[in-house]
Design brief:
Layout lengths: L1 E7 L2 E8 L5 E6 L8 E6 L5 E7 L7 E2 L8 E2 L11 E8 L5 E9 L17 E8 L18 E2 L14 H31 L6 H30 L8 H25 L10 H33 L6 H21 L3 H32 L1
Protein name: CBD9-like protein
Subcellular location: Membrane
Keywords: Electron transport, Membrane, Transmembrane, Transmembrane helix, Transport
């Protein structure tokens, strides 16, 4: 990829060119991705060229800026999308600088939309350069000319190029794995264990709390911490979208549910004519958290990952697994409701024995006082 700059009085014309297969090309004013004004360009099927001005808060997909300080205007006469070389040209107002720090990026995948806000996949090549805008061009120059400070970078020619994961992206993957295992495997497992096993052995609670707290807890805490750290490492904003906001909410709700479960187990009502209301709430609240977790995981791999990293959609297999699991878990739980009547009978019998023992204790106390 080559970046050329030509000063024409009060404006500067920039040309982004490449002899490779172009998805999109872009450049920005600055020496790092964070908060640098960017101009990203790509061709459309109707022959037009989209000029999208964006900024990014970190190493994430840049977002459209509706009112940029320097408005870029497509230079159609200097642009071409046919032949052996693709050229995207635009002009902006000159700012009087004689030297310009520039970042550039090259992507192979076309956004597939003429919308300025279309999602773009991560670049396969990027870099920084310094343009000398005080240089002069020879009057006899022919063809395309570049300023003396122009710098070019060539993208790799392999179509099977694999883009290495950046450190923050590895954190996102670890965050996703731990949270999926914690929220969508061990939490449902603990709920199903309580639903199926409690009528056969009183030890069901041991397996329930181990699954729901002892195993899920560390997985969820570490997964949540990695999610927060990945946002920090990518220099992105915290809590700026639904996935991040719901992530914090579900994390808090999980610990509320754990506290409620401990309260129900250790604090028993002295006298009760039926099943305590908090027991029902605990069960329903747990199912609600699992439902939210399904939603959260889906937005994570369908929206958050491509928008944050620009690496495109997750493989279709993730969708298949999610659909199977989101159907299987409710069906398994509904099937377990067949044991509910047996559970109620056992609880009523246990309550009757407890009341009978309490009655005998009370009567013996009365008799003891009478004889005294």
């Amino acid at each position: 990829m080559c970046v050329e700059a030509t000063v024409n009085g009060t404006s500067v014309q920039y040309v982004l060119s490449s002899t490779q297969t172009v998805g999109w090309m872009g450049m920005g004013f600055g020496n790092q991705m964070s908060n640098s004004p960017m101009i990203i360009m790509w061709s459309n099927s109707d022959g037009t060229i989209t000029v999208s001005q964006r900024e990014a808060s970190g190493h994430s997909m840049p977002q459209v800026v509706s009112n940029p300080d320097r408005v870029a205007t497509l230079a159609e006469s200097a642009s071409t999308t046919s032949g052996s070389e693709t050229r995207f040209a635009f002009t902006v107002d000159a700012n009087g600088d004689t030297s310009e720090s520039v970042i550039y990026a090259f992507g192979r995948t076309n956004p597939g939309s003429s919308s300025m806000s279309a999602n773009i996949q991560q670049h396969i090549d990027d870099g920084t350069l310094q343009l000398n805008l005080a240089g002069t061009l020879s009057a006899t120059s022919t063809g395309s000319a570049s300023s003396p400070g122009s710098t070019s970078g060539t993208t790799p020619s392999s179509d099977s190029l694999s883009i290495p994961l950046q450190p923050y992206q590895r954190m996102i993957i670890a965050h996703a794995i731990l949270c999926v295992v914690g929220f969508l495997f061990f939490l449902p497992f603990g709920s199903l264990l309580a639903r199926y096993v409690r009528t056969f052995t009183p030890k069901w609670y041991t397996g329930h709390w181990i699954s729901q707290f002892a195993i899920s807890g560390p997985l969820i805490v570490v997964g949540f911490a990695l999610g927060v750290q990945s946002v920090t490492s990518s220099e992105s904003l915290h809590l700026d979208d639904d996935h991040k906001q719901w992530g914090v909410a579900i994390f808090v709700l999980y610990w509320v549910q754990c506290a409620l479960g401990a309260f129900i187990h250790w604090v028993k009502p002295k006298r009760s004519t039926g099943r305590p209301l908090q027991n029902y709430f605990h069960a329903v609240f747990g199912l609600f958290i699992i439902a939210l977790a399904f939603y959260q995981v889906r937005t994570g791999y369908k929206t958050e990952w491509p928008n944050t990293t620009g690496r495109g959609d997750i493989a279709k297999g993730a969708d298949i697994i999610w659909y199977i699991w989101v159907v299987a878990v409710p069906l398994l739980y509904l099937a377990g409701l067949a044991f509910l009547r047996k559970q109620y009978r056992q609880e009523a019998a246990a309550k009757g024995r407890t009341n009978h023992l309490q009655y005998e204790f009370d009567m013996s106390d009365v008799q003891h006082r009478y004889h005294n």
